[in-house]
Structures are given as structure tokens and as C-alpha cells.
Amino acid sequence: MRQADQVRAFLFDGAGIRGRLVRIDQTWREMLERHEYSPDVAALLGQAAAAGVLLADNLKGRGGVHVQIQGEGDVRLLLVQCDHALNLRGLARGERLDGEGSMRELLGEGRMMVTVDPGPGQERYQGIVALAGDSLADSLEGYFRDSAQLLTRLWLGVSGGSAVGLMLQRLPDATIDEEDWRTLGMLADTVRLAELAELPAGELLRRLFAGYDIRLFDARPIGYDCRCTSEHLDNVIRLLGREEIEGILAEQGGLELTCEFCNKAFQFAPEEARAALGTEVPDSSTLH
Predict the structure, then answer these.
(1) What's the sign of the alpha-carbon dihedral 229, 27, 157, 175?
(2) CATH number of 230-286
(3) Which of 4, 50, 67, 119 is the S-S candidate for 62 at Cβ 3.0 to 4.6 Å?
(4) From residue 135, how far is each of 27, 204, 279, 285 by CA, in Å?
């Protein structure tokens, strides 16, 4: 049975190596709704989303992970945010989001920033690496090597409406057999994106790593959350400030805010905008 919108951790017993499988279906499609991304731009965003989940699934506290990719090409920004509960959102920005091409052709030269928030009371940390190789996976492997200092291999892609990923990683402070690491990497290199998208995790791991003792942990569900709640929108209005809001109301007779992530527009009547600012509305009869 197809296992959608979930991530599963696994461990090679006695080898000092762990891994994760991620499959994002409806959550990824919700991320793409109301945006006119080309298939290649959507695929890049899907790879970044899979990477964000793989990183966030390792959090111990109630924090989150931000993966931000800045480029000098037609696509100037890919941004993915995933919290400890695997609530995910993401977007792409640029001069042209309907283009075709590889990561290098779409992003050009650029850099990747990974910000990890371990949770309340703990210090955030950020790693910055140049875009390297021909894929986001290559750049993320550079992040783990140079910033996190963890030996890591990644396979990311999209297939059949799913964003998918596989990660292998040395356990922190573990001593591993270099031959095991090379062999597991070569075996993982044979995986097809369609297999990552379609096969149940247990079956996939048995096929891919036959002969290894693997402990597979329970699946964790992934959900979409653009966070454009009433509270968040009110905060945006307060950040804009009374002077700017009053100027917009005088010119347009109302206020419209658009969520950058889900691309939904939210309309505010003058009394609603003023209420969010915490000011009294002169004619209280207009309140509802």
C-alpha cells in the first residue's frame, strides 16, 4: 500500500549509520496550489521540501528548520520551513518562475542557508554553503560536511506527484566501517525515484539493502501549514503601522493582504483593519 505524506527513520544495526525516507504527496500539491510554477521550478521546490522534512525530523525540541536557497538566475529564492511537528510550507520567487532547466540553469550561482532552531531556550545555529554540484542534494551534503560535520548522503527528487528523499548519515560520534559506508552509498545510488514514491518503506529498504539488519521506526505524518491565521494577519497589520494602514484605507477604502506561501488574498474592511491595530472605530455601529 502506498504510504503518503510521511517520513520514516531507520537504523543499520551495529553499523553506526542511520537513515530516513520521506514521501510528500498532498502536502506538496497544496504548496504548489495558486502558484504558476513550471514543472522544473516545482521540482526544485519539492526537493527543498523533502530536504526540510529530513532535517526537521531529527529535531529533539519544539523548534524548526528553515532551508533558504538564493540564486542569481531566473529563480532568486527557494524557501522551505518545517517545524518539529512536520508542519511544512514553502515558496519560490524570481523574475521568471515558468522557466525550464536544471538547478544550475534556473538558480545560477548562489548559496544555501540552513537555519536550525532547536526549540525554546536553545540557541539557533545557521550554516551557509555555496551551491555546489548539479543538484540540491550535492549542496546539502556540503552543508552536512562543512557546517554540521556529519558524513551524509542524500537523494532527492520528484516522481508521479510526490516529492521524495532518502538520507544516509553517520551517527554522531560513531565509528563506522568505511567499506560499509561506501557499499551502502553505492546501493542507494541504484534507487529509482519511482521506487521512493511508490514502494512501502519496509519493502524498499529490504530490496535496496539486502543482507543488512535494519530497524525501521514508526512513520511520522507530514502536513501543510502556511500559518496565515487571523492572529498572524493581525500581527502583519500591526507591523505595517497606523500611518501606513490609514493611508491605504484612505486611498483604497479597504485593506488586502496576500499570504506569500498559499497566495490567498484576505480582505479587511476599515473597521477590521483598525480593530487589528488596537484603535477604536469612530462609528461602533459598523462593527460586526
Answers:
(1) positive
(2) 3.90.1280.10
(3) 119
(4) 22, 23, 50, 58
pLDDT tens digits, one per residue of 175-212: 899 999 999 999 999 999 999 999 999 999 999 999 99
φ, ψ (nearest 5 deg) of residue 85: -90, 10
Q: Which residues pair with 170 in a beta bridge?
A: 17
The domain covering 6-224 belongs, at the CATH homologous superfamily level, to Hsp33 domain (3.55.30.10)
Taking only the tens place, the pLDDT of each residue in 82-137 is 999 999 999 999 988 999 999 999 999 999 999 999 988 889 989 999 998 889 99
Say what the pTM is: 0.86
